[in-house]
């Protein structure tokens, strides 16, 4: 059963990849490519938030702040110091992870709502630093003229289609790495912490070390997503550090399925397209979108993917129970025949 499930999952991921590759050839509209690429960038960041929140059980409200750290790392280094884009891009994730180490050491001593409130304050401090430190971040004016990613093997990333495939490549890489983490001993360690600190300690898990590691991996994803965002949009303002973006990513996780791999991707891609499709309603579109979101949370509390996985698990359990009963019944009849 497990091998069949894994095979079906692999086929499903491959079909999604084929659809993503085919999308630019089906749609010649550059605006749609831009919307989709932006959704991919936030999907990468949402994968990181899902690691610390969905898998480890710590709700980090400073996640958009770390995404801003990655974005501004690329913006400051490339525009003010003429550092090549790819070096700045690598540093975007590393600096976010380094900052995440110090924030994690302080914040992860707290639990539950106290941790979330602390990170909310940290995120707001990040926003204020970006907005007020004119000499470093250019303040409210923002950073303009961020160069596009430099060519690789003669491939340039100036056009929307080229940028789309670049972002798609990093999304595929991010999903692959996250899948390996989720199915590894490390991922099971994170899930044990989510299920309860006392249980995890009883299993011999070092809580602080693993929580900090999960936090660093999470914000590393956010930093890289921010670096991609900077090279894609090529303009940065303090708004990227707003907690509203963290709430958006949280909504993506809740709709798709918290603690699942495909759920954050589904939410991060479906929600922006839903809002785009309701643009004709202008300011009234949230009157439609709001009730839809509420209905999803009420009737699918585990998200779309989480609900489907739960249904599949229950169906597999009922099938196994039925097969076991049939096996016992057949064995009983054979025993009766042998006695006869």
From TrEMBL:
Q: Which domain of life is it from?
A: Bacteria
List where the protein spans the membrane: 32-52, 59-79, 85-106, 113-130, 164-182, 212-232, 252-274, 286-311
The principal localisation class reads membrane
What is a GO molecular function of this protein? branched-chain amino acid transmembrane transporter activity
* Membrane protein topology class: Multi-pass membrane protein
CDD domains in the record, alphabetically? TM_PBP1_LivM_like
Q: Which Pfam families match?
A: BPD_transp_2
Tell me which GO cellular component terms the UniProt record holds: plasma membrane
**What InterPro entries does the entry give?**
ABC_transp_permease, LivM-like
Tell me where it resides. Answer: Cell membrane
Q: Which UniProt keywords apply?
A: Cell membrane, Membrane, Transmembrane, Transmembrane helix
What name does UniProt use for this protein?
Branched-chain amino acid ABC transporter permease
Taxonomy, top ranks, is: Bacteria, Pseudomonadati, Pseudomonadota, Betaproteobacteria, Burkholderiales
């Amino acid at each position: 059963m497990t091998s069949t499930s894994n095979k079906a999952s692999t086929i499903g991921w491959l079909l999604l990849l084929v659809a993503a590759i085919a999308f630019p050839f089906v749609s010649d509209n550059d605006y749609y490519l831009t919307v989709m690429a932006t959704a991919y960038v936030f999907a990468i960041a949402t994968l990181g938030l899902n690691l610390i929140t969905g898998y480890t059980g710590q709700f980090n409200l400073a996640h958009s702040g770390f995404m801003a750290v990655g974005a501004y790392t690329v913006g400051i280094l490339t525009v003010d110091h003429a550092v090549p884009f790819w070096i700045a891009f690598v540093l975007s994730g590393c600096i976010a992870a380094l900052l995440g180490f110090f924030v994690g050491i302080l914040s992860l001593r707290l639990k539950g709502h106290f941790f979330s409130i602390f990170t909310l304050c940290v995120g707001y401090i990040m926003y204020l630093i970006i907005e007020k430190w004119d000499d470093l971040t250019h303040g409210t004016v923002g950073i303009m003229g961020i160069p596009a990613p430099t060519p690789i093997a003669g491939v340039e990333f100036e056009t929307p289609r080229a940028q789309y495939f670049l972002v798609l490549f990093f999304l595929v890489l991010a999903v692959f790495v996250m899948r390996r983490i989720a199915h590894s001993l490390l991922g099971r360690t994170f899930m044990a912490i989510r299920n309860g600190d006392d249980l995890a300690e009883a299993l011999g898990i070092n809580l602080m070390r693993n929580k900090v590691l999960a936090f660093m991996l999470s914000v590393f994803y956010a930093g890289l997503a921010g670096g991609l965002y900077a090279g894609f949009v090529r303009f940065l303002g303090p708004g990227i550090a707003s907690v509203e973006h963290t709430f958006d990513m949280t909504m993506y996780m809740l709709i798709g399925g918290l603690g699942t791999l495909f759920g954050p991707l589904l939410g991060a891609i479906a929600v922006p397209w839903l809002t785009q499709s309701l643009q004709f309603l202008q300011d009234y579109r949230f009157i439609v979108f709001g009730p839809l979101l509420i209905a999803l949370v009420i009737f699918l509390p585990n998200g779309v993917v989480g609900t489907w996985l739960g249904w599949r698990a229950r169906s597999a359990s009922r099938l196994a129970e039925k097969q076991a009963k049939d096996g016992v019944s057949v064995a009983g009849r054979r025993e009766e025949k042998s006695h006869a």
